[in-house]
């Protein structure tokens, strides 16, 4: 297994560790930042999420720079991203930090796009991520991080940044999903 694929697998391994710190009440105590209380466990979970999200850029960088792009990596990398985002959103819904409908919209789009990718792969086609899809991913990561941090430091300024970031993520998720389906409708029609 090459380095980019190992980085992707490491991202997947980080997901349950991230979820553990996010959802289990550890007796580490809490910290007051900008007037808001946040547990040390949530800060650790946020740091783990940031590291996992950063590995998405890192594995792609190494794959392109060293010409190590593989079919396995093209399949596994977006899957790892979707698992990370889905796990985070479900956890945030459990913690009542994100409305369930937002998680449903984002996760549904990811399942639908993965379905088209699988249909394309069965026909020997590989669909690369679009620029819009990459912006969608960045917006989701920013929204999740802001939600994990309970909107700190923006809460001290009475700016609902986490809410705005979630709304932007939903808009880009829907927009990129529609764009994805329109650009690849020939694959869908061919497989029916």
TrEMBL record:
Keywords: Cell membrane, Lipid biosynthesis, Lipid metabolism, Membrane, Phospholipid biosynthesis, Phospholipid metabolism, Transferase, Transmembrane, Transmembrane helix
EC number(s) stated in the UniProt entry for this protein: 2.7.8.5
The protein's enzyme class: transferase
GO molecular function, one term: CDP-diacylglycerol-glycerol-3-phosphate 3-phosphatidyltransferase activity
GO CC list: plasma membrane
Keyword presence, Transmembrane: yes
Membrane-spanning residues: 12-28, 40-62, 83-107, 157-182
GO aspect biological process, one term: phosphatidylglycerol biosynthetic process
Bilayer topology term: Multi-pass membrane protein
Primary localization class, coarse: membrane
Location of the protein in the cell: Cell membrane
Catalytic activity: a CDP-1,2-diacyl-sn-glycerol + sn-glycerol 3-phosphate = a 1,2-diacyl-sn-glycero-3-phospho-(1'-sn-glycero-3'-phosphate) + CMP + H(+)
Pathway(s) per entry: Lipid metabolism; Phospholipid metabolism; phosphatidylglycerol biosynthesis; phosphatidylglycerol from CDP-diacylglycerol: step 1/2
Pfam families named among the record's database cross-references: CDP-OH_P_transf (PF01066)
Family annotation (PANTHER family): CDP-DIACYLGLYCEROL--GLYCEROL-3-PHOSPHATE 3-PHOSPHATIDYLTRANSFERASE 1, CHLOROPLASTIC, CDP-DIACYLGLYCEROL--GLYCEROL-3-PHOSPHATE 3-PHOSPHATIDYLTRANSFERASE-RELATED
Function according to Swiss-Prot or TrEMBL: This protein catalyzes the committed step to the synthesis of the acidic phospholipids.
Similarity annotation: Belongs to the CDP-alcohol phosphatidyltransferase class-I family.
Protein name listed in UniProt: CDP-diacylglycerol--glycerol-3-phosphate 3-phosphatidyltransferase
Organism, scientific name: Shouchella lonarensis
């Amino acid at each position: 297994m090459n380095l980019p694929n190992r980085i992707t697998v490491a991202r997947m391994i980080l997901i349950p560790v991230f979820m553990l710190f996010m959802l289990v009440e550890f007796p580490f105590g809490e910290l007051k930042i900008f007037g808001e209380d946040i547990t040390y466990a949530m800060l650790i979970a946020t740091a783990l999420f940031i590291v996992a999200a950063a590995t998405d850029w890192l594995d792609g960088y190494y794959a392109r720079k060293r010409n190590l792009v593989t079919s396995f990596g093209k399949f596994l990398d977006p899957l790892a991203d979707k698992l990370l985002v889905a796990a985070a959103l479900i956890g945030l819904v459990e913690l009542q930090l994100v409305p369930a409908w937002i998680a449903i919209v984002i996760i549904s789009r990811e399942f639908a796009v993965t379905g088209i990718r699988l249909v394309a792969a069965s026909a020997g086609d590989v669909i690369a991520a679009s620029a819009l899809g990459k912006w969608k991913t960045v917006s989701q990561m920013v929204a999740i991080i802001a939600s994990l941090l309970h909107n700190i430091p923006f809460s001290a300024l009475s700016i609902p940044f986490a809410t705005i970031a979630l709304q932007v993520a939903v808009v880009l998720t829907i927009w990129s999903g529609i764009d994805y389906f329109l650009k690849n409708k020939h694959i869908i029609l061919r497989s029916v």
